[in-house]
Amino acid sequence: MSKTHVVYKKKIIESIEELPESNLKEVLDFINFLKSKRKKREDSILKVAGCLSGNSISAKEIEEELYGKFKEEC
């Protein structure tokens, strides 16, 4: 854990302790929002990475897949 991380964590805890109890649920909701936003981004990256894994294909194979016989006729 970096020094900056520890400092931020300490400041966050101090700030939370100063909040009235009525605001604690809002803070928790915001933390959960940030966590879910991060998870969605990670899931998106993994989804793309999954598409890229497997057998590699050549440029010619890509062209054939995209244009098929159309390119051959031109």
Description:
Residues 11-58 form the DUF2281 domain. This is DUF2281 domain-containing protein. This protein has one domain. The chain is 84% helix and 0% strand. The chain has 4 helices and no strands.
| Global Rg | 25 Å
Mean pLDDT: 83
Number of helical segments?
A: 4
- Fraction of residues in helix: over 70%
User: What share of the residues does DSSP label as strand, in percent?
Assistant: under 5%
Instruction: Kindly report how far apart the N and C termini lie.
Output: 61 Å
Number of domains: 1
Task: Output the structural class.
Answer: mainly alpha
Q: What is the global morphology?
A: elongated
Largest sheet: none
Low-confidence stretches: none
Series of secondary-structure elements, N-terminal to C-terminal:
HHHH
Number of strands: 0
Protein name: DUF2281 domain-containing protein
Pfam families: DUF2281
Domain DUF2281: 11-58
Kindly summarize this structure in a few lines.
This protein is mostly helical and 74 residues long.
List the keywords.
elongated; 0% strand; DUF2281 domain-containing protein; mainly alpha; DUF2281; 84% helix; 74 residues
Map the helices and strands.
Layout: H1 3-18, H2 21-52, H3 59-67, H4 69-73
